[in-house]
Amino acid sequence: MNTLNSVNKMRPNMKTSPAQSSVKNERKAIITISILSIIAVISIFNRNTFSSPPQDIAQLETSSRLPANVSLGTTNLEDSVAKELSVKGLDSQAHLGQDPSKVEQLTFGFLEGKYSVRLKNGKLNGLELSHGSDQPKLMPKLESFIADNKEILPVPFESIHQTQNIQVNQENVQKFSLMGAARHQLAEVEFHLDRLGRLISMKINSQL
Q: In whole angstroms, what is the distance from residue 41 CA to residue 48 CA?
């Protein structure tokens, strides 16, 4: 028995002290908090990634093909202002946001912005194909063109009579008289067309 007691006294005390237990608990708490933090970060990342609205496919394709510094052209506002500046004699007041005038309808509608427009006292005085325009407007019915734009012509005529149709230097020159109520000539309209019947220029002589 004395020998057994001696052996027991020689064994180290295997019981854990309160300080050691506290350290272990703190380590477990830190590990648990770290794991929960990682899970929370992953959850937030996945939610933000999959909940973001899808981007338009065409926009993605365009942005992937074009470098950031490539200009895509002018805006609609810039195009509209540029067209207005091409009209000679128009008032400097901006017409954006208002209904287009008859002159603007003619210039940017029927003539598609291809011609410079000359005005005199607010009335149409002439047209000329703008420099750089290689697609003149086809004009098969000149009398109809005059009648359709009666409101912006310089004289209040009653009828239209053609007085000339000749070829001059590979151009077709046609003239029309604008007649008053008493069959008096009030003005003359002269058209110059190319060999395909496309408008090159027009001028109006109202000083008769």
A: 11
Ranges of residues in the chain whose predicted pLDDT is under 70: 1-26, 28-29, 32, 34, 36-37, 39-97, 208
- Written as one letter, the residue type at 111 is L
Strands 159-168 and 123-129: unpaired
Give the per-residue pLDDT at 71.
Answer: 39
Contact criterion met (CB below 8 Å) for 31 and 23: no
- Asked if residue 30 is part of any domain, the answer here is no
C-alpha closest to that of 156 among 185, 175, 180, 177:
180
Q: Domain for residue 139, yes or no?
A: yes
User: What b/e sequence results for 146-160 when a residue is b if at least 16 CB atoms lie within 10 Å of its CB, and e otherwise?
Assistant: beeeeebbbbebeeb
DSSP conformation class of 198 = B
* Strands ordered across the beta sheet of 185-193: 115-120, 123-129, 199-205, 185-193, 171-179, 159-168
Evaluate whether residue 46 is within a structural domain: no
> Residues near 104 by Cβ (< 8 Å), separated by ≥ 6?
84, 87, 95
Give the pLDDT of residue 63: 41
Number of domains in the chain: 1
What is the extent of the structural domain holding 117? 79-90+98-205
Q: 71-105, pLDDT tens digit by residue?
A: 334 455 555 555 555 554 444 444 556 888 999 99
